[in-house]
Design a protein that fits this description.
The chain is 51% helix and 20% strand. Strand 2 and strand 3 form a beta hairpin. It catalyses: ATP + protein L-histidine = ADP + protein N-phospho-L-histidine.
């Protein structure tokens, strides 16, 4: 109770207000985190929903292509010839069904149908809709006993050429093409059957790099008929029983466009644990920032509270001293009528004047003492802050030697402050880092300029490397003579590592996205171009006897060029050869490949241990090499290019690309909006490696590109 009574009321009020404010702030942060979490979940689900819609569109496009493929197969000359022969000789006198294990003669060669026959069954029927021959490359056999009756009924009633029907309770996609003679009589029917089962969905997801689990559902019961991942969601489960493990991202009817007699739905499921993991990873950084903010708030509050309490104590002491102030003179009360009345009045006036003089002198002395106390308190506060602050404060003389070092350096570098006095900051750096720092700081120190956010690496007492971000300002005496620098250094080692991790994650995401885009171009556009080429080849073969194949030959050449250009684009997007080659082998192979089609001379040399580089390092450095070589050959119009790749014992890898082209004005190029000649791409890739890129060029004198990075 005595301690509580000794605390001033103002301090108690400030403490209560601070506690209430902190509690309100924390409650507000908690509510804000909940809102952010809900919004983040909504955005993640929206992203997965859009991806599911794209997947549905790709699946529909794939099934539409099967109809076009069937028409191309039926239009080929070998199919027409085979049908005429079978129609003339009879389809089969013994009534046996022929199941081919190899590609039959009425289908195109394996090189043309290998991209279409992985999950498709081919059936050949006569004019009476009887099945005589089959061929299948799929793993799951086609149940012909259950299938034949439904297929015949479906085709006889004039079903559409591309549709979905039910066989054994599962959806099957049908694409049928009729072959007729010159009189219009039906001779044969070619049917492509694609069972829409779990195997089909699994392969489709791997082919187009889909996320989540795609399933086919019965519309009435919600039962899973097929799943892209049967180990996680097995056929036969009901969608209502999966809500505790998965989020239903998208659910829609699939078969209306194909005029199906069977009603089912396609749905995409996202595991709850995946969404929760993504939310935790994104919100983790926010939690750390909140913790730091709370710590800073309470530290500022207690420092403010301490400062106010000291001010109130001094003010109270002054009031007590003023209340107790007296002159130390005691005069007796004179009796009325005494002759000393006049003297009493004079003494009263004199005493009053003395009291005023003493009060003035006391006030002046008190103010001087207070000023001295404030000065000492300010110095003590500065020293206290210098010792308590988490950053390192320092002062240098005009020769660059330490004259003051705060105690925080011992925590950063493991060195006592007194051991650094008289030493230079360059003494604490590795030799290479010291040379780099001297070169970069020489112009600023010579101009007596401020040092802003300069990053350097120092070696701690235990040998570890500490990355510091330094800010400093020059000091001058009263006559304007330079006396040194005063500044502050902050340990940013952890921040640099986090930024490097972020660059690594961003780089990996870009690599994966480029791979996915390359696969998508190869599988979708490449497949369509191959189908068009196949159709033109068949038409050219059909017109060959009459000499009318010349127009088709020109179109085939253009398609071949388009396929070649698409292959170059996909190779640039996803250089898969880097996964099986070392960087030196990949660059040498690319130089040889470019030299075959280019008149320029390309010389490549390699030196040092260049094996064992990780995929990300190889990918970024190879992209820098590609961009530099393209700039030299196409933009600079060089006749000779030198490429050098070296690795030092310290693990520093250097790439140099030098050409004798027309060069460029670097100031003009670097100052333009597009940065020109791909130099911005080279700098960006070098930064992702944690390295640096330098350029040396002049108009008419060629260009040299250096990139250095640590493996």
């Amino acid at each position: 109770m005595r301690i509580t009574r000794a605390i001033p009321l103002s301090i108690k009020i400030l403490f209560v207000m601070s506690v209430v404010g902190a509690a309100s702030w924390m409650a507000q942060e908690q509510l804000q985190n909940r809102r952010i979490s809900a919004l983040l979940k909504e955005q993640l689900e929206q992203s997965l929903r859009e991806e599911a819609r794209r997947s549905l569109a790709q699946l529909e496009e794939f099934l539409r292509n099967q109809v076009q493929v069937g028409r191309l197969f039926a239009a080929q000359e070998r199919f027409q010839t085979y049908i005429q022969q079978r129609a003339q000789s009879g389809w089969g006198r013994d009534g046996r069904l022929i199941s081919h294990r190899r590609i039959p003669e009425w289908l195109p060669p394996a090189s043309l149908i290998r991209n279409f026959s992985r999950h498709v069954h081919f059936l050949l029927l006569d004019g009476q809709y009887r099945i005589w021959e089959t061929y299948s490359a799929a793993r799951t056999p086609l149940p012909l006993d259950d299938y034949q009756a439904q297929l015949l009924d479906y085709l006889r009633v004039g079903g559409p050429s591309g549709a979905i029907t039910s066989v054994g309770g599962l959806p099957h996609y049908l694409a049928s093409v009729e072959a007729r003679n010159g009189e219009g009589a039906l001779q044969a029917v070619l049917v492509l059957v694609a069972p829409l089962n779990s195997e089909f969905l699994s392969t489709f997801n791997r082919r187009f790099d889909q996320h989540g689990v795609q399933v086919f559902l019965r519309h009435e019961s919600g039962e899973v008929m097929a799943s892209s991942d049967p180990t996680r969601v097995a056929p036969g489960e009901r969608i209502s029983a999966l809500t505790d493990r998965y989020v239903l991202v998208e659910r829609d009817f699939f078969n209306y466009e194909f005029s199906s007699e069977m009603s089912f739905q396609v749905a995409t499921l996202a595991p709850l644990e995946t969404l929760a993991s993504l939310q935790d990873r994104i919100l983790e950084s926010d939690r750390r920032q909140i913790g730091v903010s709370i710590a800073v708030y309470f530290a500022a509050f207690f420092l403010t509270l301490l400062w106010i309490s000291r001010k109130l104590q001094l003010f109270g002491a002054r009031i007590v001293q003023f209340a107790r102030n007296d002159l130390g003179i005691s005069l007796g009360r004179l009796r009325r009528g005494d002759r000393l009345i006049i003297l009493e009045e004079l003494l009263d006036r004199f005493t009053e004047e003395i009291a005023k003089s003493r009060a003035s002198l006391t006030r002046e002395l008190r103010e001087r003492k207070l000023a001295e106390a404030r000065a000492r308190e300010s110095q003590a506060r500065y020293r206290g802050l210098a010792e308590e602050i988490s950053d390192w404060l320092w002062e240098l003389d005009a020769n660059g030697r330490f004259t003051y070092v705060s105690p925080r350096v011992e925590e950063m570098l493991g060195m006592a402050p007194e051991t650094l006095l008289g030493r230079s900051p360059f003494d604490l750096m590795p030799e290479a880092e010291a040379e780099r720092t001297r070169m970069l700081l020489a112009p600023q120190i010579g101009a007596r300029a401020r040092l802003e956010s300069f990053v350097s690496t120092l070696r701690a007492n235990d040998g570890r490397s500490v990355i510091l971000e330094t800010n400093g300002e020059p000091r001058f005496d009263e006559s304007g003579v330079f006396t040194g620098y005063r500044g502050i250094s902050r340990d940013v080692t952890r921040r640099q590592h986090i930024e490097a991790s972020i660059r690594h994650i961003k780089n990996r995401l870009e690599i994966e996205e480029r791979k996915r885009l390359g696969n998508l171009l190869h599988e979708s556009i490449g497949q369509s171009l191959q189908a068009i080429k196949l159709g033109l080849q068949m038409k050219a073969a059909a017109k060959g006897a009459g000499g009318g194949e010349e127009p088709y030959r020109l179109e085939l050449q253009e398609i071949d060029e388009a396929i070649g250009q698409l292959r170059d684009v996909t190779t640039a997007l996803r250089p898969s050869f880097l996964e099986r080659m070392e960087l030196e082998q990949a660059i040498r192979w690319w130089c040889d490949r470019v030299s075959l089609n280019a008149p320029q001379v390309i010389d490549f040399t390699a030196e040092g241990a260049l094996d064992g580089l990780d995929q990300e390092f190889k990918y970024n450095l190879f992209r820098i090499f590609q961009e530099s070589l393209t700039n030299a050959l196409k933009h600079a119009r060089a006749s000779h290019v030198e490429v050098a790749l070296t690795s030092s014992a310290a693990g520093e890898v250097t790439l140099m690309v030098k050409d004798d082209g027309r060069g460029a004005d670097l100031k003009q190029v670097m100052g333009s909006l597009d940065r020109g000649l791909g130099l911005s791409i080279i700098q960006e890739q070098a930064q992702r490696l944690g390295g640096e890129a330098r350029f040396d060029a002049a108009p008419g004198a060629g260009m040299t590109v250096w990139v250095k990075a640590t493996r």
